[in-house]
Amino acid sequence: MIKRPGQQQLLLPVSPLFMWASLVVALLINMIPIGRAAWMPDLLALAIVFWGVHQPMRVGIGAAFVFGLCMDVHQASMLGQHALSYTTLGFFAITIHRRLLWYPVASQALQVLPLFALSQLIEVITRMIGGGVFPGWSVLISPAVEAALWPLATVLLLAPQLRTPDPDENRPL
């Protein structure tokens, strides 16, 4: 099937079980005790933005807040640090979801980069207000890595929703 420029493939409805499982898996991956280097991507933030863009009625600010509290408790950080960061991410993801989906995936990655940078900035400022030290400028690498992972996340998380590419007389769509 040949698609015109700007034409998208139709997707099946998302399974709520798959959507919430992907968020929980991202949370568990973030909780793996491999050390938190400043350049490591926050996969939970990536999943929250992805589902906030693709399913804004199901994954919203409340879910982002709960997952943020889970990360705060796990990392023993100031309570609300990740919650504020993820809530802001969820809000802006829902705000831009209609506009963002009009663009190709590479352009989407560039447009979510400021969201990830804002999230990182909120975490750093909150940590510093609580008496922490500035982690250095290497903290700016993490949002770039998260934005670079956006196309991979799109492929992986939309894969179960893809329809068959060759319609036949029994499946006109």
UniProtKB/TrEMBL annotation:
The keyword Ion transport does not apply. The keyword rRNA-binding does not apply. One of its GO terms (biological process) is regulation of cell shape. InterPro entries: Cell_shape_determining_MreD, MreD_proteobac. It is found in: Cell membrane. GO terms for cellular component: plasma membrane. The chain crosses the membrane at residues 12-32, 44-71, 108-125, 137-159. Keywords: Cell membrane, Cell shape, Membrane, Transmembrane, Transmembrane helix. It is a multi-pass membrane protein. It holds the Pfam family MreD. Belongs to the MreD family. This is Rod shape-determining protein MreD.
